[in-house]
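Duplicate of #3305? Posting structure anyway:
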């Protein structure tokens, strides 16, 4: 995983390759039954409460810890170009989906590009402030996201072994 911080422009860039087709990768990022299998770094689990993947729609989910912890987040989808890209606002929330404005909020742009043997996903996260960017990094975002993306590799490997 490539991970770059651009503090001056309040951005984080993540680039990751997967040995799967753009359609398979897209589905893993946009279907709750698949997202729940990989989005959380182990031993945590992701659990979708509701998802409406469309422009103007939302995804409300929780990260559930091994000791009963539960932390909610939401994604508000802005623009979707099927199998190519989507943008949305990512924020922490309560169980009812109310945004927690005391924690970092980021606008995500995710693009999916076919390459020989797989797909590249590029994620650009834009923050309101340098402090929000730094806070998310301090909360372990890089390590957690890298672990989650590795979970997705495992799913694609299992799919190939069953084909």
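Output from current build:
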């Amino acid at each position: 995983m490539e991970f770059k911080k651009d503090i001056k422009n309040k951005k984080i860039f993540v680039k990751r390759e997967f040995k799967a087709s753009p359609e398979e990768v897209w589905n893993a990022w946009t279907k709750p039954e698949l997202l729940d299998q990989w989005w959380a770094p182990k031993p945590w689990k992701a659990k979708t409460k509701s998802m409406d993947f469309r422009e103007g729609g939302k995804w409300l989910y929780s990260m559930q810890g091994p000791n009963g912890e539960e932390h909610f987040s939401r994604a508000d989808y802005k623009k979707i170009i099927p199998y190519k890209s989507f943008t949305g606002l990512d924020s922490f929330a309560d169980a009812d989906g109310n945004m927690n404005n005391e924690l970092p909020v980021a606008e995500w742009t995710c693009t999916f590009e076919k390459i020989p043997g797989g797909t590249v996903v590029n994620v650009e996260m834009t923050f309101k402030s340098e402090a929000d960017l730094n806070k998310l990094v301090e909360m372990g975002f890089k390590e957690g996201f890298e672990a989650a993306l590795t979970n997705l590799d495992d799913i694609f490997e299992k799919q190939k072994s069953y084909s």
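Confirmed duplicate; merging threads. The first helix runs from residue 22 to 30. The longest strand covers residues 70-81.
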